[in-house]
Each structure stands twice: as C-alpha cells, then as structure tokens.
Amino acid sequence: HGWSEALAGIKSPHVKYICPHAPVMPVSLNMNMAMPSWFDIIGLSPDSQEDEVGIKKAAENVKALIDQEVKNGIPSNRIILGGFSQGGALSLYTALTTQQKLAGVVALSCWLPLRASFPQGPINGVNKEIAILQCHGDCDPLVPLMFGSLTVEKLKSMINPANVTFRTYSGMMHSSCIEVIFSI
C-alpha cells in the first residue's frame, strides 16, 4: 500500500500502475512468524540458502500478471517491473527468466535471487537488452549495499552493461527517499 501511495504523487494519466501485495506467509528469518513475503527468507548473507521453489512460484505469479496485461492489449515491451526489497529481487529474477520482452526493471534495495543459477556470461533470453535501474542506500542494514553491488556486477555480465544504472543514496537505510521516487 505504501508504494501505491508513493507512486500516486508522480502518476501519469497515460500509465497503468499495478501494485500487487505479497501474500502473508511464515518467514524463517522472522522466527517463522507470518508477514507479507513473496518467498521465504532463510538468511541475510550472500551464501545463505534460498527458497528456490518459492522464488520460482512467485515469478510465475508475476508472469501471469504480465500475461493478463498482454491479453488486455498492453504489449509486453511496454511493461516495466519494479519493486522494493523482495519485490525488487522478484522483479529482477522475473525479467531475466520470462519469455516476454519487457521494457525495464526498477529494483530498489534488493539483490538478484538464485544468482548462481544464471550463466557466467551474457544471457540469450529476450531481455538481454533490458534497461535496469537499481537504487540502494549505503546504510541499509537489512539488504547491505554489498548485495546491491554484487547484483549490479552480475547484471552487467549478463545483459548489455550500458543498460544497467546503479545509484546509491548516502545515509539511506532500508527505505526510500524523494530522490529515488523522482529517479523512477
């Protein structure tokens, strides 16, 4: 709901914004307490085990949203995925695994899930030229800036590096700021 409200301030009348909400589920890192989450989070280090099944299922749900918009008459190459934290991670993963050509990704305070499953070099998928804007605060205690830096380097090895923009924000924690909103 917070992103719906934030986007309302910059909303263009000719753009359709869809802000799906993560389902509520138990999260391992949260002592198995239920919270909004696209997939389970097991740990917060680059080598932590990942919820491969949950990530892939969440990506399929996003792909279904894309398919529905295409059926509604919006060409996939005019669709931009975006998200914050898990939502940004899911947006990156979905864009790099879908067969639908997308316009871009806005990835805020996030990482690339299942990064080891991607090739070491350029991808051959339809989104090898996709534009990606990645933003990260340099004081993020939940998703450290190192995760963002590792992600941007991996992305630049997979897609056209000229299409990857990485912006850091001094003093910003695991949140957003007006500068981030207006860079979108």
Note the main attributes of this structure.
PLipase/COase/thioEstase; 184 residues; four-stranded parallel sheet; EC 3.1.2.22; two-stranded antiparallel sheet; lipid metabolism; 6 strands
Tell me the layout of helices and strands.
Layout: H1 2-8, E1 24-27, E2 33-36, H2 52-71, E3 80-84, H3 86-97, E4 104-108, E5 131-137, H4 145-158, E6 164-169, H5 178-183
Parallel strand pairs: 3-4, 4-5, 5-6
Antiparallel strand pairs: 1-2
Main sheet specs: 4 strands, parallel
Give the assembly state of these chains: single chain
Q: Which stretches are low in confidence, meaning pLDDT under 50 for 5 or more residues running?
A: none
Calculate Rg over CA atoms: 16 Å
Strand content: 15-25%
Percent helix among the residues?
25-40%
How many distinct beta strands?
6
User: If helices are DSSP runs of H or I spanning 4 or more residues, what is the number of helices?
Assistant: 5
With strands numbered from the N-terminus, the spatial order across the biggest sheet is 3-4-5-6
Element pattern in H and E: HEEHEHEEHEH
State the end-to-end distance: 18 Å
On the 0-100 scale, what is the average pLDDT? 90
What global shape is seen? Answer: globular
Structural class: alpha/beta
Organism: Eudyptes chrysocome
InterPro entries: AB_hydrolase_fold, LYPA1-2/EST-like, PLipase/COase/thioEstase
GO biological process, one term: fatty acid metabolic process
Enzyme class: hydrolase
Quick overview:
The chain has helices spanning 2-8, 52-71, 86-97, 145-158, 178-183, and strands spanning 24-27, 33-36, 80-84, 104-108, 131-137, 164-169. It has 184 residues and is α/β, with parallel strands linked by helices.
